[in-house]
Design brief:
7-stranded antiparallel β-sheet, alpha+beta, 6-stranded antiparallel β-sheet
């Protein structure tokens, strides 16, 4: 499909295209030294005054993983309630400097709503559609590979059919700005590791309406990298309403599943191999299929992740971003797995997510 004008002053000329192809946009020195200093002073002051909370994603938070879980956030709101958090509290710290950053990010959000394909609800400026938070990692902290948003069918069985809150939204675009002064990646660690596809997507990533992306068809010599989406509303036997489909570079949609399959198939261990057997019919498609976050068994989750930079299917590339002061990073929240490597000294930043409507 024809793309809209990419011209804007607040982002690099190719930023929208890069994000839509499944790549991250990296903008060094996006904030000035004075701006990063003001934010760094505020984040440190807020942390020292007890306005952060620990976030733990570990099975053993008080044992071997204690240092790895020295991660703290000061959120703008809680996804579990309608209450604002300390980041949005005008009585805490330097609220003016946080508001200045929020206003600048809101400009980017408006540009994306206008220029990105199939994301009109990014323009919605209702409450809690721009998630922001301060971030602090202690020495030894890290964050394992993950994606920031998932299809609701991957969050809970038959989640697409469960009632939604009014104005329910989901993470659409991830962004972060680093605040660390004189950071040496080789010595200080803490790099953001991006697990991008080796080839850019031929069709825009993330979602087609309510159908979020769950995988890829790996590029071949004849065909480009194609996103794979999950439709959970197809007609089929009871509790068997899921179908995978892909979209090519011309915007043509093609089903990968001849028959609908049950939601439970999404929760089985076995990774790509199991998905290829249960969800895809054509052998050529099955060989190319890779799930963004393949289901893992309990045993697999306790094993060390693969060190192969090409990933499980050989179709990935690794890019490490040093968290230097003023650097802006942006990418699609659904399609790009990432992690934070172990940091060797205190690490600060601001991170956020532009939300779009969660289609019922």
């Amino acid at each position: 499909p024809a793309t809209k004008s990419r011209t804007n002053n607040i982002l690099p000329p190719d930023a929208i295209q890069q994000i839509e192809s499944g790549r991250a946009v990296i903008v060094p020195n996006w904030l000035t030294p004075d701006e990063t200093t003001a934010l760094r002073e505020d984040v440190k002051d807020c942390f020292e005054n007890g306005h952060f909370k620990n976030f733990i994603l570990s099975r053993n938070p008080n044992k071997a993983d204690k240092a790895a879980n020295d991660r703290w956030i000061m959120p703008s709101f809680s996804s579990k309630s309608d209450k604002n958090g300390p980041f949005a509290d005008a009585t805490i710290g330097n609220f003016a400097v946080r508001q200045k950053l929020k206003a600048r990010m809101a400009e980017i959000k408006a540009v994306m709503a206008n220029q990105m394909q199939d994301r009109p609800s990014l323009a919605n400026d209702i409450q809690q559609t721009h998630e922001m938070e301060y971030l602090r990692y202690g020495a030894g902290a890290l964050l394992q590979r993950h994606t920031d948003e998932h299809h609701v069918e991957l969050k809970r069985p038959n989640g697409s059919r469960l009632p939604k809150k009014p104005n329910a939204s989901r993470r659409s675009v991830t962004w972060m700005v680093y605040l660390n002064d004189e950071w040496d990646g080789a010595e200080d660690g803490g790099q953001l590791r991006l697990h991008e596809r080796s080839n850019p997507s031929v069709s825009y990533v993330g979602a087609r309406g309510r159908d979020l992306q769950v995988g890829w068809l790996r590029a071949t010599a004849e065909e480009g990298e194609q996103p794979v989406f999950l439709d959970a509303f197809r007609s089929g036997p009871e509790n068997e309403n899921c179908v995978l489909y892909t979209v090519d570079g011309s915007g043509n949609q093609r089903d990968l599943s001849r028959k609908t399959f049950a939601n439970i198939a999404l929760y089985l261990g076995g990774g790509d191999a199991m998905a290829r057997k249960l969800m895809v019919d054509e052998g050529a498609d099955a060989k190319r299929l890779h799930l963004i976050d393949a289901p893992k068994s309990l045993v697999a989750s306790l094993m060390a992740p693969s060190a192969d930079p090409a990933g499980e299917d050989g179709g990935e590339r690794v890019r490490d971003i040093v968290p230097k002061a003023g650097t802006l990073v942006m990418f699609d929240s659904v399609s790009l797995p990432h992690e934070v490597l172990q940091t060797n000294r205190e690490r600060f930043g601001v991170q956020g997510w532009f939300h779009e409507k969660l289609y019922a």
